[in-house]
Amino acid sequence: MNILAIGLNYRTAPVEIREKFAILEHDLEDALRRLVQAGCLAEAVVVSTCNRTEVYAVAYSANAGREEIIKFLADASGISREVFLPYLYIHADDLAVRHLFRVTCGLDSMVLGETQILGQVKDAFLFAQGLGTTGATFNNLFKRAVTLAKQAHSETEIGRYAVSVSYAAVELAKKIFEELTNKTVLIIGAGKMSELTAKHLYSSGARRVLVVNRTFERAKELADKFEGHALELKSIDLALKEADIVISSTGAEGYVVTKNQVGSAMKQRRFRPLFMIDIAVPRDLDPKINDLDNVFLYDIDDLEGVIAANLEERRKEARKIEQFLEQELVAFKQWQTERAAIPLIQALQKKAGGIQKSVMESLRNKLPNLTDREMKHLEKHTMSIVNQLLRDPIQQLKEMATEQQADLYLEVFSRIFALEETAESASKHSSPEPESPEPEGREKRQPQAAVTVAKSETYQNTKATVETQWFGGLSR
Question: Where are the beta strands (DSSP E) in 272-317?
């Protein structure tokens, strides 16, 4: 079985290509069913956002699984594979797992460390799980990915540093005022960036919003979003007198606010601090305003400088997350390898439990005078003996499953305890993953439980090694 991650994102494909591959919510169920019903994939999850479309799959064969996913993407997008293949990335096994972890933690996002993708990956997994297109592997893997992402954001400060213009403006405002509670915000212009910055300031405590715009109707529309007041452009001098924070983004030719206007307003406000953010290009606010006492003027370049410094801080935090990620990757690989031992562990426990039950029945027949209380004590203690005897072999079995000759070790274990039939029964009840289909022309592999290990020198040496480790050589 192979884990695959195949897709495209904002780094590998322009938006005009990405939009062709977007899988909308109402198409997601059909997409997942098509992926798993083709027969090459045991499990599938699709993550589709504005910045990426990715198919995660557990494939019986890496090559066949890859081809099936590429065919699916071609059908879904209506684009020939020759056209979109250069935009695809294809990861398998460890690289696929690492990619999922990085995506979920926000390390592969356009905005480094953003958290929205965590919810999107989680929702994609839960949707697939609800449809039944996930199994033991992805149920474990995606839960690990979500838990890892939560750890990444709670145990590092990657989300602390502003990396957008609007957030950077809020960060600067907090440095000037410390607290934004009850501050008055003046918005000059009603563009998207002004609105977004005002929204962040409002959510940070700024409660009074004034909006000045050439079109009064648009000013009122924006003001209503923050329970604010709309003003005509001619009222800007009055607004400057009341404002603590000014956000300007009009796109007008020439300065909308001059040094003289601000100087006059500062006298009327008794030089109370004024924080001004000019996010327009060309600039709205006269740069000479910055010469005035207690006026703090920042333009788009100043904000970009803050963003660059903060982005470097996020990169430092991201390196910490990479360490968490590698640890989780090792843990997942350990879980994968130990899974091979599960049918034998179940078979051993079943056989031991059967022996204990048989002994208890024999005691009940041979010692009919024992009370129910005495029988319960005997049952408890015999079960304790069984569990203690099994503890070390089970632990050794898990460790053997991770070693290079795992298949041989497991076969030896099975032979020593005569578990072949019991293991087959346990395997059926544990719903194992289907065997991998073989390419045409190659002899079909036999299920692992049916593999017969010849009593060769290698087998005998391995058997002796296992017996020595488990029984200290006493079995001889």
Answer: 274-278, 295-299
Q: Which of 90, 91, 88, 66 is CA-nearest to residue 79?
A: 88
Going from the N-terminus, what domains does the chain have, and what CATH number goes with each? 2-155 (3.30.460.30), 165-305 (3.40.50.720), 340-471 (no CATH)
Give the active site residues.
50
DSSP for residue 439: P
The predicted-structure confidence for 95-128, as pLDDT tens digits, reads as follows 999 999 999 999 999 889 999 899 999 999 999 9
Helix 25-37 / helix 62-77 crossing angle, nearest 10 deg: 150
| 106 in a labelled binding site | no
CA-to-CA dists, residue 172 to 297, 304, 412, 421, angstroms: 10, 12, 68, 71
Q: What is the rounded CA–CA span in Å between residue 443 and residue 77?
A: 36
Measured CA to CA, the distance from residue 219 to residue 242 in angstroms comes to 17
What are the phi and psi torsion angles at 266 (to 5°)?
-65, -35
CA–CA dist 247, 173 (Å, integer): 11
Element (H, E) at 56: strand 52-59
The pTM for the full model equals 0.65
Is 139 annotated in a binding site? The answer is no
Cα 39 to its chain centre, rounded Å, is 27
190 is in an annotated binding site: yes
